[in-house]
Amino acid sequence: MISPYLIQFIVFIAFTLIASLYFSFSRYDMLNAPQWIGLDNYDKLINDPVFWKSLWNTIYFTVLFVPTQTILALILATALNQSLKGLKLYRMAHFIPVISSWTVVLYVADAIFNPRFGLANDLLLKLGMEPQQWLNDETLVIPVLVAVAVWKGIGYMMIIFLAGLQNVPEDLYEAADIEGAGVLQKFRHVTVPLISGTTFLVLVLSTITTFQAFEQIYVMTGNSGDITAAGGPNNASMVLMLYLFQQGFAFLKMGYASAIAWVLFLILFAITLVQVKLQNKWVHYEK
After folding, report:
1. Labelling 232: which of 101, 184, 192, 193 has CA 20 to 30 A away?
2. Each residue of 242-285: pLDDT tens digit?
3. Is the pLDDT of residue 228 over 80?
4. Domain ABC transmembrane type-1, which positions (predicted)?
């Protein structure tokens, strides 16, 4: 009964993992047989300035994205956890970007951040400020990409928080009311501790999502589908997944791309391990 899943796991997951690990120690261009070169790919990574730039950009993206999305998703979930008229409509409206394709979302983003006719520059002009070259400015490109990513994914994290909020016992809020606690006190001392497990899940999922960011950056910073043009300006938006994709499929350096993939895996594994270790200090468990 489980053989279909086992076959799928062995062929498409286990085999590819082993193959990519082997390729990471090889010179492989997908046209010729891989040649074993030992640690040369990893040694090249250590001395590759673009790799370090892409790693820094990925960390910067994560530092901006994870707290912003987590806080905004929690605020939205709290607001939409009330008894309001048309509540389902509001929830659906916030979830629409999640189920929309990146192509649709990026058309909307272009209508906002396009330097020639975007709504963002129109607003700046009305406020008497200078228009910006949003995606062509090295200091603005990552924050703009983060803003679009938050808008795209916040609905999903909001639903997760909603599930956690609806599991908080009402009698605890009633007890807090009797003690004279205000709205903020109830949120801080009742809501936040009891949804800490949900918050931990959101933090882990958001972190993994940011380290795997690719499609949005590829489309928004690329030039008519040119793989090598994405990640600009001056590699200011180059992230690990995009650099991996360029090395593997634009330059056919599949061995080098595999080495990047395994470094990315080790980074994610280490971050997740740290998060799991730290959860015992702040995650509340029901007894």
Report:
1. 101
2. 999 999 888 889 999 999 999 999 998 898 888 778 776 666 55
3. no
4. 55-275
8 within a domain of the structure (yes/no): no
pTM: 0.85
Q: What is the CATH number of the domain that holds 93?
A: 1.10.3720.10
Distance CA 45, CA 35 (A): 18
Q: What's the total number of domains in the chain?
A: 1
d(CA 208, CA 240): 12
Residue 35 placed within a domain = no
Residues 121, 36: Cα–Cα separation, whole Å: 53
Domain assignment present for 19 = no
Q: pLDDT value at position 68?
A: 94
Distance CA 215, CA 104 (A): 12
Six token digits for residue 154: 């916040």
- Does residue 143 belong to any structural domain of this protein? yes
Check: CB of residue 219 under 8 Å from CB of residue 102: yes
Percent of the chain with pLDDT over 70: 95
User: What is the reported pLDDT for 54?
Assistant: 93
Q: What is the dihedral of CA 260, 265, 267, 272, to 10 degrees?
A: 170
Of 207, 260, 271, the closest CA to residue 20 belongs to: 260
